[in-house]
Amino acid sequence: MRRVVIGYFDAGGGHRAAARALAESIVRQQRPWQVISLNLDDVLEPADPVYRATGVRGGEIYNRALRMGWTAGSAQAIPVMHGVIRMMHSLQVRLLRECWQRLQPDLVVSVVPHLNRALFESLRAEDARTPFVTVVTDLADYPPHFWFEPQDQHFICGSERAQHQARALGVAEERIWSVSGMVLHPRFYETIRADRAAERRKLRLHPSRATGLVLFGGYGSQAMLRIAKRMEACRREIQLIFLCGRNQRLAHRLRGLDLLFPAHVEGFTEDVAHYMWLSDFFVGKPGPGSLSEALAMRLPVIVQAGVQTMAQERYNVEWIRQHGVGIPIRSWGAIARAVEEMLHPAVRRRMLRNIGKLDNRAVFEIPEILQRIAFTETPLPRNVSSNFDRCDIAV
């Protein structure tokens, strides 16, 4: 059986989610592969200077910053982080070579940025024949040395912007693969057969009132507290669902608020799709995962587009404007006005039409691309995004 290794890390949570989604899609398509999900944080812990100094992994420090909303300096922090990665590069390559010796992969897939040079060089040092593929889980690169490296590997890109960036760096055309969006778990494509009004009542929400979902990834954000209070100024009747992820302290504080509108607060859940199905619009940061999940569930989005926006997510704000699927705002002080605008019938109809033009099937498309890259001898077409429909995978 062919052995496929999918490498991820835990910084932010979206990379683990992409790895799990891709592994699930491979299983559902009944590919004859053994899929190994590899946590690169475990492999590279000896090369993590933050861990060596504090006993806490660098990725966890990043996640703590997300919880607190400390993201304003991301553009300045990224070059510093890349400097540290360069300094630890030789050790990273050695640790990864030991990993490949143990796992003996037939194909290595990365769903992470920053580490693709070390992944590629370590794999080539062990076996020059083993294909290496990076699935870009952002709508665009944030160069240099974020997603793309000038090396002889394959890149799977879910946007035209990312494809253009790969070409501009000199990546060979036959190494650039186009898919129709970001990687989402197959559950976001499953039909939910339930009574939405009844499901809302179970959460002590009004069955027919406009419902917003507030989500800031798997680790939440203190911004959710500001959103809750600012939304009290909304002149329309609304209610909110807050998904706080692994941020238990935030969930406790939200539950303690005496809000003027109905609200449900949930901690970590695997059933984000269900809560999105219960909602009418999305509020959060413009992360590629949550943004794409919301659009797959036909939710117009409201995102912050100010100094707090992560550097690598700033293009996502531009993408939202270009496609007319949401409202970016400079600060959460404008959230009530943005919700009122979004709920205007004409605005909502226009956004839903624009969302309907999107058809993200990337998680179903990528296994076939991997098959063609690694396990067939036939010529490799560069775009297979039109070859799949919902019947390819039973859900």
List the helices and strands and how they pair.
Blueprint: E1 2-8, H1 14-28, E2 33-39, H2 40-43, H3 49-54, H4 58-68, H5 74-87, H6 89-103, E3 107-110, H7 116-126, E4 132-135, E5 154-157, H8 160-168, E6 176-178, H9 196-202, E7 210-215, H10 223-230, E8 238-243, H11 248-255, E9 263-266, H12 272-277, E10 281-284, H13 288-296, E11 301-304, H14 314-323, E12 326-329, H15 335-342, H16 345-356, H17 362-374
Parallel strand pairs: 1-2, 1-3, 3-4, 4-5, 5-6, 7-8, 7-10, 8-9, 10-11, 11-12
In short:
This protein is 42% helix and 14% strand.
Explain the overall architecture:
This protein is globular. α1 (14-28) packs across α17 (362-374). 42% of the residues lie in helices and 14% in strands. It folds into 2 domains: 2-184 and 360-392, Response regulator (Rossmann fold, 3-Layer(aba) Sandwich), CATH 3.40.50; 193-356, Glycogen Phosphorylase B (Rossmann fold, 3-Layer(aba) Sandwich), CATH 3.40.50. The strands form 2 sheets. The protein has a 6-stranded parallel sheet, with helices on both faces. The chain is α/β, with parallel strands linked by helices and 395 residues long.
Q: How many discrete structural domains?
A: 2
In the CATH hierarchy, the architecture of the largest domain is 3-Layer(aba) Sandwich
Mean pLDDT: 93
* Helical content (DSSP H or I, runs of 4+): 40-55%
Note the overall shape.
Answer: globular
* Assembly state of the chains shown: single chain
Instruction: Name the CATH superfamily assignment of the largest domain.
Output: Response regulator
Category by helix and strand content: alpha/beta
Main sheet overview = 6 strands, parallel
* CATH class annotation of the largest domain: Alpha Beta
First and last CA, distance: 25 Å
- Largest beta sheet: strand ordering: 2-1-3-4-5-6
Quantity of strands, as a count = 12
Report the radius of gyration as a whole number of Å: 21 Å
Low-confidence stretches: 378-395
Named CATH topology of the largest domain? Rossmann fold
Order of helices and strands: EHEHHHHHEHEEHEHEHEHEHEHEHEHHH
% residues in beta strands: 5-15%
Count of individual helical segments: 17
